[in-house]
Amino acid sequence: MAFSPPPSVPEHKEKSAPQKALEKLGLLRDIDLALHLPLRYEDETRLVPIAAVRDGDTAQVEGTVRDSRVQFRPRRQLVVRMADDAGDELVLRFLHFYPSHQKALEVGRRIRVRGEARGGFFGLEMVHPAFRGVEAGTPLAAALTPVYPTSAALPQAYLRKAVASGLAHADLSDVVPAGLVPPGLPGLRESLRLLHHPAPDVSLAALEDHSHPAWRRLKFEELLAQQLSQLEARREREAQRAPRFAVQGGGLQEQLLGALPFGLTAAQRRVGEEIASDLQRDTPMHRLLQGDVGSGKTVVAALAAAIAISNGWQCALMAPTEILAEQHFRKLVHWLEPFDVGIAWLTGSRKGKGRRAMLERVASGEAGLVVGTHAVIQDEVQFAKLGLAVIDEQHRFGVQQRLALRHKLAEQALEPHLLMMSATPIPRTLAMTLFADLDISTIDELPPGRTPIVTKVFADTKRAAVLERIRDEVGQGRQVYWVCPLIEESEHLDLQNATATHQQLVEALPGRMVGLLHGRMPAAEKAAVMSLFGGGQMAVLVSTTVIEVGVDVPNASLMVIEHAERFGLSQLHQLRGRVGRGGVASVCVLLYTGPLSDTGKARLKAMAETTDGFEIARRDLEIRGPGEFLGARQSGAPLLRFADLTLDEDLVRAARQAAGRMLDEHPAAAREHVARWLGGRAEYLKA
Ligand code: ADP
Ligand code: MG
After folding, report:
1. pLDDT tens-digit profile of 546-586?
2. By mean pLDDT, which of 102-106, 287-291, 555-559, 681-685 is the weakest?
3. Which of the ligands is closest to the CA of residue 302?
4. Ligand 1 atom 26 nearest Cα
5. Nearest CA owner, ligand 1 atom 13
6. CA spacing 20 to 30 A to 118: which of 150, 193, 589, 641?
7. Would you say residue 490 has pLDDT above 80?
8. Does the CA dihedral 175-179-181-184 come out positive or negative?
9. Mean pLDDT, the chain, whole residue set
10. Which residue's alpha carbon is at the smallest distance from atom 12 of ligand 1?
11. Which CATH class, in words, describes the domain spanning 50-140?
């Protein structure tokens, strides 16, 4: 195969549209191009006798033009009749054509044609086949022709040349020592050559379902890079020093435990011990506490904070929204202030004198506990001695905020311990790969006395019946959430929607307090509405998704989610978790406006069938794939492109084992491998 020179970028000149398109696809380096693998292949290695072509076949044939004419019925078109050397005929039909086509397809020309055959009115025909003029005996392609994933601005032919060039110029020598590669897998160069230009006898099925050893080699390489970067992050962290806390009998955390109105569940005690044992070591904790909505993660965090504080260190607790941060603040004040713990409150909306006073209390160490939004990790916030950072609903924070947090934590000589919390459990294979640098504790039990939530799915046309149900619920002294979607592009519209629904409920419930809450309200107003609802004076709260995470009002027993089809699965689960927090049986009504898409249907079905957050996460992963599942974490970062975490668990294991040995025995090769695969993006993967 002949390679054309790389599509070089002339300096000081505008880049061409295809060059820009290449960059947009992230195809910058030769190695990136070499790793851009075909979606499928076209077989131009064979000629098929026309007599053997069947309706629906994609085939390449060769022969001579017998007849060529422009017809005008039913519309203008070029119709060409050709025959192969055996004399069998095929009709070619072109609805768009230029004089140059007519010339190339004149009677008597020998042509090679490739396309999909259809049984037409006049026998077999191909509509708009690819064709070119040939001489008898023109050699056939030696390998299958790759078809690459591309974009509208990037012609396949241009991309083919660019990839071929990348493949020719990239350094494809094996970096991974042979002894670490699972047996039976070909080398990297050999694998890539095969995948880009497979010989005609290679099994197309094995190429297409990615089970061919060459595919497995690439998946292994990719997984290894990812494992190496995680392992490196872990080792870097383990080389850091963190304050070692003593956990004493009779200390603050025991006092707090004694003052709680409930006893811990067995699961809470177990994860509490896992965390306490991390805190007694001098390497920084890096732990994810996962537990379903309502499983009681906050109190576990408070107990960890108590350990840090009683050792003379500060604890920061960060939540993704102001409402949630404020709720944590109130709860922690209630729990910890009786024991003389100074608690500071920091959010973006807190400005001026009050803010300066808070910053002062944080800097002096007078505040043992600092609660807030991501404002807590901004540059001007200086901690006297930060010993523990707790991030609630960690998956809601963006990549930039995670990176900022890492930098903040690295500011001190002794690095703080880090506890992340999430109600969206990480499926096991993801935990083994993208989250390998994380220890995980799981609360797998809800506090006693909760009644399961019943979920019902209704078309929006049943609104009147739903209003009736609300009247009932409110009549029994219970409270109701009504959630309206908020989609950024149409924020204005959605606000109208929430306002209209609010009006409707006000009218339907005379004598009851019906509140409205949305993200554009001033913080003070939001807080006022939340406190009326939290205190029980407000019967119904109409809200956009600002209540999504963490809000805790145990007397709320009914939740209506309008336009439920617009929400993601884990978001619906989070929302639903706002009810079912007290002893009364709770109901969640999902109202949808049809027609539903297939994924919309799958989501609502999953919601109606289970309330188990782990099962929901599994189905979410199934419906959306890992890319979307990870959401903010991965924006700007590559996901696994080749490996499929549901199918390639064996390779994940192999890569995990190999990563440990490679880092120990071949550290330079390990670095080279990560650079080759992840380029400058490794940093994001650790965020
Ligand atoms: P999440 O895990 O969703 O953050 P929370 O920490 O908000 O859950 O806890 C939900 C509710 O359960 C809170 O009102 C909390 O005080 C209460 N709770 C937590 N642990 C227990 C327990 N062991 N027994 C009874 N109630 C508990
Ligand atoms: Mg919570």
Report:
1. 665 557 788 999 999 999 998 888 788 888 988 887 778 89
2. 681-685
3. 1
4. 447
5. 296
6. 150
7. no
8. positive
9. 87
10. 296
11. mainly beta
Q: Whose CA is nearest to atom 16 of ligand 1?
A: 296
pLDDT in tens, 369-419: 999 998 888 888 899 999 999 999 877 777 677 778 878 888 888 999 999
Atom of ligand 1 nearest to the CA of 260: 16
Say yes or no: do domains 50-140 and 453-610 share a fold: no
Mutate to test the pocket of ligand 1, among 257, 260, 262 (most ligand atoms within 8 A of CB): 262
At residue 179's C-alpha, the angle toward residues 177 and 183, to 5°, is 120
Q: Does domain 453-610 have CATH number 3.40.50.300?
A: yes
Residue among 212, 74, 96, 72 at smallest CA distance from 144: 212
d(CA 121, CA 116) in angstroms, rounded, equals 16
Contact 585, 449 (CB under 8 A): no
Which amino acid is present at 552?
D
**Per DSSP, which regions of 84-190 are E strands?**
89-94, 110-120, 123-127, 130-133, 145-147
pLDDT band for position 10 (cuts 50, 70, 90): very low
Compute the distance between CA of residue 516 and CA of residue 529 in angstroms, rounded to an integer: 7
Residues 468-487: tens digit of each pLDDT: 999 999 999 999 999 988 65
Closest-approaching ligand to the CA atom of 290 = 1
Residue 678 binned pLDDT confidence (cut-offs 50, 70, 90): confident
CA of 264 to the centre of ligand 1 (A): 9
User: Ligand 2 center to residue 215 CA distance, Å?
Assistant: 42
The best mutation among 265, 289, 298, 422 to test binding of ligand 1, ranked by most ligand atoms within 8 Å of the C-beta, falls on 298
294 CB within 6 A, ligand 1 = yes
Indicate whether residue 422 lines ligand 1 (CB < 6 A): no
* CATH fold for domain 252-443: Rossmann fold (3.40.50)
- Neighbour-count burial of 298, counting CB atoms closer than 10 A to its CB (0-12 exposed, 13-18 middle, 19+ buried): buried
User: With a 6 A CB cut-off, is 613 part of the ligand 1 pocket?
Assistant: no
Nearest CA to ligand 1 atom 20: 296
Q: At residue 9, does pLDDT exceed 70?
A: no
- Give the domain ranges of the chain: 17-42+146-209, 50-140, 252-443, 453-610
pLDDT of 218-269, one tens digit each?
999 999 998 998 888 888 888 999 999 999 888 899 999 999 999 999 999 9
Question: What residue spans of 513-597 are helical by DSSP H?
Answer: 523-535, 569-576
Tens digits of residue pLDDT in 371-381: 999 888 888 88
* Contact between 642 and 218 (Cβ < 8 Å): yes
Establish whether residue 264 lines the binding site of ligand 1, counting it when its CB lies within 6 angstroms of any ligand atom. yes
Average pLDDT, integer, range 652-678: 92
Nearest to 373 by CA among 411, 445, 316: 316
How many whole angstroms separate alpha carbon 373 and alpha carbon 90?
Answer: 70
The region of weakest confidence among 23-32, 511-520, 548-557, 594-603 is 548-557
Ligand 2 centre distance from Cα of residue 267 (Å): 16
Q: Give me ligand 1 centre to Cα 44, in Å.
A: 65
